[in-house]
Amino acid sequence: MRKGQNRFVAGFLLVPVALYLIFVIWPYIQTFGYSLTDWKGQSQTFSFIGLDNYTALFEDDIFLQAIWHNILFLVFIPVITILLALFFAFMLNAGGRGRAGGVSGVAGSGFYKIVYFFPQVLSLAILAVLFGAVYRSDSGGMLNGFLMRLGLVDENSPVEWLNEPNYVLWALILVVVWHGVGFYLVLFSAAMQAIPRDIYEAALIDGAGRAHTFFRITLPLLWDSVQTAWVYLGIAAMDMFILVSTMTAGEYGGGPDHHSEVMATVMMRNFLLYGRSGYACAMGVVMLLLTLIVSVVMLRATRRERVEF
Amino acid sequence: MSAPLKTASRGESVPTGPTVTKRGPGGPGDERGEGVVLNVFSHGFLALWALLIVLPLLWLVLSAFKTDAQIGGSAFGWPENWTLDVFSRAWDKGIGDYFVNTVIVLVFSVPLTMLFGSMAAYVLARYPFRGNRLLYYFFVAGAMFPVFLALVPLFFMVRRLDMLNTYQGLILVYVAYSLPFTVFFMHAFFRTLPTAVFEAAILDGASHTRTFFQVMLPMAKPGLISVGIFNTLGQWNQFILPTVLMQPQSGDDPERYVLTQGLIQLQQQQGYASDLPVLFAGVTIAMIPMLVVYLSFQRQVQAGLTSATLK
Question: Which of A121, A161, A242, A281 is the most buried (most CB within 10 A)?
Fold first, then answer.
């Protein structure tokens, strides 16, 4: 029996572990090594140059600007998304005051939950095309067309949403928020459903209004989910490759004039366009370090006494 | 969802009829003023967000029926070209091929992900052996690193295996990168399954392999569905891996672009070719399967993605 069992265990693990080693772990490890070389990628010859790539990175203005943009995303995307999602989740789960004296969602919350979630199943490539059309820089763009109707934008000088250095990052943030709110709303809803009804009902008897109920009961009991959402959105804000590379100007995006550059776009351009593989690897390592720092900081910053119920 | 649709709106809460008896403690009279203002505000806001979701999508689909001049003209023109011709044109311009490429990859990658992920998770969850914990953390750790860390060496690894721009290359890479999460999730699931059933099967003379496929795997079906949805959506929408591994071709080699890449390609082409309706038709075609899957399984999709994130 014992012998058969060992063979079974080994047999079941063989393929998954092999695949995982070859395509995930080994490349992860190799990146650190390549980041210390001047590898150009095409030939197999390269030489060890120590930390030169890293020192070059910190003199690369484009990459430094990209880090700064990632930090801006990191601040605004999670805050806006979580606030909206929390507000909607509360309205849909506890905003209504039912006839039965209980606490439930407002009318139509089932419908809203279905509609709000929809952007989540669309690929980011679809979003890129969709919002490319919405942000069109003539009267045919949905946003410009709408603002012209309202008389807020002059017919003859429409706003170049994606080509205006001051607007481009906000235009991108709007897409991410539009995409994410529904998902985090559902995430928070699931957590809210797990809160026992009688806590709400007790609060109701004590005369708590909606705002009170939210800040004193819902939010503390939801803190774990908010923390999860915070970390996930933080990691997404460190990436942003698809939207930036497809919606903004330039080879692998980043335009106008590097005003929307993120680390991922700089890295992919250096790798796929310039063939600077070693340098791109160094960027990958920096992205890893920053992502780890962000996760740890966010988990620490949001740590609270855990409320049991 | 606890029957929110049946909940009466606030206006009806002061009836003199028999429903009054059904009203619970803490009658809402004391906070009516706050309630009405909040209700108007919040309902307005909820409806506005719903419109912000639906309108751009409808507008996009309608744009497929416009002419190029109309699209460049006014955002609010009503389409005049009510023919499905543009959809077949979009299909021929490449969307068809990209669609088929994506389906071919996913038909293999999703089942293989589920199979290998479950196998590893099952063994790690239920068989104590030396190095078990280590191997488990080894799998789970992969979910924490950004994929960008691996891209450059991954490209050369796949090239060395001669699998660049092939279906099997992308399939294997998809499976490998889906393993951390699948193992993590299924591991938790297999641990909760009762040991008694497993022992009964072994006593009845079933081999370990047979017990897994005929007893344990069917019992894990709810978990498999959740992870399956998660993996399907994730792999269908994947963009970075194919961007690196399915390179543009020159000469007679066919493009092996997947749908996400293809849409971006189409966006660039049609911008120059001044045939934007084709682009919008292409996006509509790409959107429909997801819309259908989502609307038919919306409960499972929402539950699957939520539990996927929370675990």
Answer: A281
CATH number of the domain enclosing A223 = 1.10.3720.10
Please report which confidence band the pLDDT of residue B17 belongs to, taking 50, 70 and 90 as the band edges: very low
Q: Pick the residue of B5, B6, B7 with the most A CBs within 10 A to test the interface with A by mutation.
A: B7
Which amino acid is located at A301 in the chain?
A
Q: How far is CA A72 from CA A81, A178, A260, B26, B244, in A?
A: 14, 17, 11, 46, 27
Nearest chain A Cα distance for residue B230, angstroms: 10
pLDDT digits (tens, 9 = 90+) for B117-140: 999 999 999 999 889 999 999 898
Gap from B126 CA to chain A (nearest CA, Å): 10
Instruction: Give the A:B interface size as CB pairs under 8 Å.
Output: 326
| Cβ atoms of residues A273 and A251 within 8 Å | yes
- Please state the ipTM of this predicted complex: 0.87
pTM above 0.90, yes or no: no
Main-chain phi, psi angles of B5, to 5 degrees: -70, -25
Residue A180 is part of which domain span?
Answer: 59-302
- Asked if residue A221 belongs to a domain, the reply is yes
Range of the domain at B245: 94-273
Q: What is the pLDDT of residues A22-65, one digit of tens each?
A: 999 999 999 999 899 888 866 667 788 888 999 999 999 999 99
Report residue B109 as tokens.
């990658």
CATH code where residue B150 lies: 1.10.3720.10
